[in-house]
Amino acid sequence: MRLWSKGADWLRRIGRAQPAEVPKQITREVDPPPEWDLLRAAERDSIVASHVNERLHPLGFVQVKPRRWVDGSAAPVRRVFEMVLLKGAAINPWWGFSLDFVPHLSGGRLCWHRSNRAARFDLFFYLDGRKYLDIWGSKYVHFSHGAASLRRDLERVMPVALEQAQETWRRGSTLSGILDIVREIRERKINSFYVFFRWRLPLTFMFLSAKVGDLAAAQAELEAYARDQELDEDVVAKLSKLLQDAASIENKEG
């Protein structure tokens, strides 16, 4: 009985208590989402080309395909810049090198990319927009909100991308410099796209190693690559001969 009385007193006191003041909700203005206005491919590529040509032509680049530019003035090393299409109607700048002396595999056969038109990345970097997300509000260039929005995105992204690209090209002004970049990519697992990292980069590493005179490292890389990719014996033999030729040519030129 006594316990019940104390409990009843407690309930009455709670009932008389004033409710705690609820803090006012803090609100902020939010920009309305941009209108959806997906550009057609031709208009998108025309805007991108106009914007990028203005910056790359003075550096010796020519446009060889939609959204791809190449400078082959220092072949067999070609500088490459590309605006790569991504999911979600997005574009991102990639840059790097195409090397005439590095083959690629297609359908189990050795193929070459020895012209501006055929140039492809033997090593590359891409703009990591996550570092600028707080400033830009988006990681990528988008073509889903009309022409004016695409131009604004290009205006903010291109200066940053070009500054980083020029630093990469400066570091890769020699074969030894390019090889150092490859080592950095592998050690830090930068740009570790599966196809590129596992299939293409080993070829770049082995042929650069041969060209700078380290045939032992090149052959060791070839052995590991052949096991990993289960290459046919004839392909391995051809690659081994090409590595020896690359090392021999470099020694004669040196």
Can you describe this structure?
With 254 residues, the protein is of the alpha+beta class. It has two domains: 30-173, no CATH class; 175-254, no CATH class. It has eight helices and eight strands. The chain has helices at residues 2-16, 41-56, 133-136, 147-171, 175-188, 194-211, 215-229, 233-253; strands at residues 62-65, 68-71, 77-86, 90-99, 104-106, 109-111, 123-126, 141-142. Strands 1, 2, 3, 4, 7 and 8 form a six-stranded antiparallel beta sheet that branches. The protein has a two-stranded antiparallel sheet with strand order 5-6. Helix 2 (41-56) packs across helix 4 and helix 7 runs antiparallel to helix 8. The termini are far apart.
Span of the ends, CA to CA: 106 Å
Q: What kind of sheet is the major sheet?
A: 6 strands, antiparallel
Q: Helix proportion of residues, in percent? A: 40-55%
Helix tally equals 8
Broad shape: elongated
Query: What is the H-and-E element order?
Result: HHEEEEEEEHEHHHHH
Count up the domains.
2
Q: Mean pLDDT across all residues, rounded?
A: 86
Helix/strand-derived category reads alpha+beta
Relative strand content = 15-25%
Report the strand count.
8
* CA gyration radius, whole angstroms: 28 Å
> Uncertain segments of ≥5 residues (pLDDT<50)?
22-30
